[in-house]
Amino acid sequence: MPTVSVQIENFDIGAALAAITAGRPRVGGVGSFVGLVRQEPSLISLTIEHYPGMTERSLHRIADTAMTRWDLIDVTLIHRVGTLLPGDPIVLVLAAATHRGEALAATEFLIDWLKTDAPFWKMEHLSCGDHWVEPRQTDETAKNRWG
User: Is the pTM for the entire model greater than 0.85?
Assistant: First the structure.
């Protein structure tokens, strides 16, 4: 069963890696992605909002889709909410598999789908004012390549 968490607090990458591999000698590779708040010239902070319950269900659906498309042993998706500063971690994606190819492909799939299908809303707090981050066509294009 995939591990999904939407949380305010930071995550521990080492602890998440240990958890996804513990007692699983079949794991031959873990694909990983850590997303960070980019340092932009006028960015002060980033606030991420979500609908509790709906967001977790969406993340589970994305993780379950990856589990059926690839021969994965487990998946971890952790996404932070609240106000974050440049350099802060936002998201952790882990995909454990017997072989690296499955783990790496699933990791890329997971982050592509998470960027477009998970109900998160981001507001950038800039030195010149605040604005909501609009969806990017490049994210939709990345998701669509998975069919």
Answer: yes
